[in-house]
Please model this.
Amino acid sequence: MTLILIQLNLIAMSALIFTSYKLVHAHKHYKFKDSPANDLQVKDLPSVSVCLPARNETGSMTECLESVLASDYPKIEIIVLDDESSDNTSNLIKAFAHSGVRFVQGSPLPDGWLGKNYALHTLMEEASGQYLLFMDVDTRLSVSTISKLVDHAVATGHGMVSVIPQRYDTYRPSAWLGTLRFFWEIVLGSARRPGSSAALWMVKRRALEELQGFAPLHDQVQPEAYIARDFVSKDSYSLVVSNESLGVSFAKKWSSQVESSRRMLLPTFYNSTASAFVGGGIILSIILSQAAWVVLAIEGNWPLFAVEFLLGIMLAGVAVGYFRLAWKSRWIVGVIFAPIVAWQELLLLVSSAVGYKTGTITWKGRPIKRPTKKSMVDI
Model:
């Protein structure tokens, strides 16, 4: 028993040190910093097309469009594609036509395409802006979000910017028990495989068209991740974590978060079942080492108990580092619920791997196949 605990402690200690380093790096390099406002005249500002793919989004569509329409950026067009919704989504979109929102009716999927990827590709073809800003319907913007993203892109010269949103609704149980979707993007991101965010990302249209849009990535669950690799290879990519200044947030029901995690966790671990189970093993080693406190206290094994206590402090420190980055307020609540969320994430990781193996993963009611090795695009 003692030898097993020592091995678990070594794994847990290594994982916590690595995670701590990545979070410190994120606080230093990813937190959004205001760029100097560009001095361009309105006529010289780059145009931005806000592109929204939607499927059965009656619960979120109105609030999302209202946040976009409130933008202070003077040169935007807003395009929303309804991907064969079975609810009232299309009528909600059309109700905003008087405000300048352009409705695009989705068409049946070509063979081999994922629904969202085809919607994104169609939106790219419909858009006229110099920049394309893709966002999920559950993402919310502040009045100055688009202006500040354009300032950032102009100041850095980057052709693609991904934004990890913050949670503002931290008074809700759906936040307390939220998944760690963006935690993995921060922790697993590297120079070659940078973290990315499907919630909100902006890219130069011409550069995306030169990559043939989403066609080479038609069956990839995270196409923006592969596109980011191309831009980072050209030193033309930014990943930023939103803050109060940038004002990007998201609100998602717990059930929707669980569905998204099952769909995205295995691809986040490079579509490798083995990598997913390694990640699960690391989470498990950290969780189980804390459960050993009681056993060691009963046995009177105080040296190992002291090690477990130190690991507990480190784990709490990691939770503080993450939730202070990811939540606008009440981060202490996230720290309190962190052990439960860790168990949940372990189960979701296993569920994602098993789901792709058994063909039970779906996206908005459509089944998703695990991408084959031939179709894996490694830019």
Remarks:
- The chain has 13 helices and eleven strands.
- The two ends are 46 Å apart (CA to CA).
